[in-house]
């Protein structure tokens, strides 16, 4: 590594938590005098922040390591961070001898010290301890997204679901103090962020170590009241700890987004038991009923695994019937993938891959029908969006509603041309696909009128035409 101009390239795989960890890692490196570059060829240190939730994700990293070794040649230092680092540990040095740094997410606090060892000439440096009660606190986070700021409140997971690698890669649950969290949120507001996405592997199992002892719902409410913060989302919740106080907080605070992600994993109580999820189908549906009863009209999404060992045709039929009952706004669905250290890895009755694929297709097809129907029903409504992107080819702005729906929209010719990124706009929905909506921005006066309404109103089509 050259003494001057130490540069690094950092590529991130996996969940939002990883994306945010990378923002903190990048900030830590910059504070150590490193310069971040976008091209791995220009970097002295090439880092991957990795995901091991399913085998495919893990394979990606090793193929990337192999590919970059060929493309970039000798003379670079490679580092593997995150969940694969934790899971594979020092075996990575054997599998990929050009790797010099292996750091699990529970050891990021040690990064400055580990980097110093590397710079001091050590060939192989590892930080792999998960036995910790510390969280990764840093004031030097380099946030990538200019509109939505990620904010971690709890790290790790103690749940030990039978399929899940997270407790073994991210270590035990540990919550940050509400005082620090709210301070960070206020800083984000004064930096101009209007949306905060609260992160935690089991976010609603937050236990405040501060004497204030805020519950998760109280923390959400406190954040929603920070001047300047217009949207607060949180992910991922565990159904077992999802209480009515969270729904009440959402109902009471318009700044808490109209959206809850509540992974069910399976619609069959028998499978849920074998997954160690800690709830039955009926108990889960009670939580859904509680959410659906809120006058806010909370949008719901979930995660589902098909082909879990021993999943019968009848179990799978229960998952399909759950989709029909809940009618989620969106889902993420996966084929079961056996993971190291997890109990389900040793379960008998593996489901053949072709059968898991068949179930996955059936599930996705059913959900597609539901989303097509539900999104079509939104034609003629108006929604406020945060503008997050621009599609020049289609002359559209890309917005997101409080329900987390993507709503792409055009601007009436009469509206002043300007950069709308990061602004809020009221949009009339004119078309729908299963995964997104299209619409047209309301002129300013109509937008004001719409903004005065607490929930999106439904306009008759004829009125809408007058508007546009
Ligand atoms: N196989 C398939 N999917 C998994 N998930 C977690 N572990 C596995 C696994 N071993 C899914 C779950 C979880 C989401 C983040 O990933 O649905 O909610």
Structural topology:
Layout (H helix, E strand, L loop, with lengths): L6 E6 L3 H16 L3 E2 L8 E6 L4 H18 L4 E5 H7 L2 H5 L3 E5 L7 H9 L5 E3 L20 E8 L10 H5 L3 E2 L2 H13 L4 E6 L15 H9 L6 E5 L8 H9 L6 E3 L7 H6 L6 H12 L6 E8 L6 H14 L3 E6 L17 H24 L5 E10 L4 E6 L4 E5 L13 E9 L4 E5 L2 H8 L9 H7 L1
Parallel strand pairs: 1-2, 1-3, 3-4, 4-5, 5-6, 7-9, 9-10, 11-12, 12-13, 16-18
Antiparallel strand pairs: 7-8, 14-15, 14-17, 15-16, 17-18
Helix pairs in contact: 8-9, 12-13
The structure holds 5'-deoxyadenosine.
5'-deoxyadenosine binds next to strand 12.
Descriptive terms for the model:
6-stranded parallel sheet; Rossmann fold; 5-stranded mixed barrel; 468 residues; binds 5'-deoxyadenosine; alpha/beta; OB fold (Dihydrolipoamide Acetyltransferase, E2P)
Your description of this structure?
It is built from 15 helices and 18 strands. It has 468 residues and is an alpha/beta fold. Among the domains are: 7-127, Rossmann fold, CATH 3.40.50; 382-451, Nucleic acid-binding proteins (OB fold (Dihydrolipoamide Acetyltransferase, E2P)). The chain has a six-stranded parallel sheet with strand order 2-1-3-4-5-6, with helices on both faces. Strands 14-15-16-18-17 form a five-stranded mixed beta barrel. Helix 2 links the parallel strand 3 and strand 4. Helix 12 runs parallel beside helix 13 (353-376). The longest helix is centred in the last third of the chain and has 24 residues, at 353-376. The protein is globular, with a radius of gyration of 23 Å. The termini are far apart. Bound molecules: 5'-deoxyadenosine (5AD). 5'-deoxyadenosine is lined by residues 53-54, 163-164, 263, 265, 303, 305, 334, 336-337, 339.
């Amino acid at each position: 590594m050259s003494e001057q101009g130490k540069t690094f390239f950092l590529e991130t795989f996996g969940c939002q938590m990883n994306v945010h960890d990378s923002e903190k890692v990048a900030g830590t490196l910059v504070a150590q005098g490193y310069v971040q570059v976008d091209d791995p060829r220009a970097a002295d240190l090439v880092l991957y922040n990795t995901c091991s939730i399913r085998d495919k994700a893990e394979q990606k990293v090793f193929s990337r390591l192999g590919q970059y070794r060929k493309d970039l040649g000798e003379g670079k230092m490679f580092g593997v961070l995150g969940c694969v680092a934790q899971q594979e540990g020092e075996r990575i040095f054997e599998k990929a001898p050009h790797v010099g740094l292996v750091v699990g997410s529970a050891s990021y606090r040690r990064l400055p010290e580990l980097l110093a060892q590397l710079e001091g000439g050590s060939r192989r440096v590892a930080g792999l301890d998960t036995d910790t009660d510390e969280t990764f606190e840093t004031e030097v986070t380099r946030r990538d997204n200019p509109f939505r700021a990620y904010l971690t409140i709890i790290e790790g997971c103690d749940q030990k679901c039978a399929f899940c690698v997270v407790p073994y890669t991210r270590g035990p649950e540990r919550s940050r103090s509400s005082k620090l969290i709210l301070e960070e949120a206020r800083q984000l507001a004064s930096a101009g962020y209007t949306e905060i996405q609260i992160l935690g592997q089991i976010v609603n199992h937050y236990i405040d170590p501060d004497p204030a002892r805020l519950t998760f719902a109280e923390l959400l409410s406190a954040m929603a009241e920070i001047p300047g913060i217009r949207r607060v989302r949180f992910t991922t919740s565990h159904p077992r700890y999802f209480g009515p106080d969270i729904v009440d907080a959402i109902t009471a605070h318009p700044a808490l987004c109209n959206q809850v992600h509540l992974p069910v994993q399976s619609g069959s109580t028998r499978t849920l038991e074998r997954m160690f999820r800690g709830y039955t189908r009926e108990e889960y549906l009670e939580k859904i009923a509680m959410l659906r009863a809120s006058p806010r009209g909370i949008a719901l999404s979930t995660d589902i695994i098909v082909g879990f060992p021993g999943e019968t045709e009848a179990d799978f039929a229960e998952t399909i019937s759950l989709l029909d009952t809940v009618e989620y706004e969106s889902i993420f669905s996966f084929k079961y993938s056996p993971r190291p250290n997890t109990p389900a890895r040793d379960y008998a009755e593996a489901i053949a891959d072709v059968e898991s694929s068949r179930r996955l297709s059936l599930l996705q097809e059913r959900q597609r029908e539901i989303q097509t129907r539900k999104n079509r029903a939104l034609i003629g409504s108006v929604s406020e969006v945060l503008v997050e992107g621009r599609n020049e080819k289609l002359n559209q702005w890309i917005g997101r509603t409080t329900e987390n729906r993507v709503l792409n929209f055009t601007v009436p010719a009469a509206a002043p041309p300007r950069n709308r990124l990061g602004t809020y706009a009221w949009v009339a929905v004119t078309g729908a696909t299963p995964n997104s909506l299209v619409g047209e921005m309301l002129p300013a006066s109509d937008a004001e009128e719409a903004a005065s309404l607490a929930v999106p109103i439904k306009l008759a089509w004829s009125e809408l035409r007058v508007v546009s």
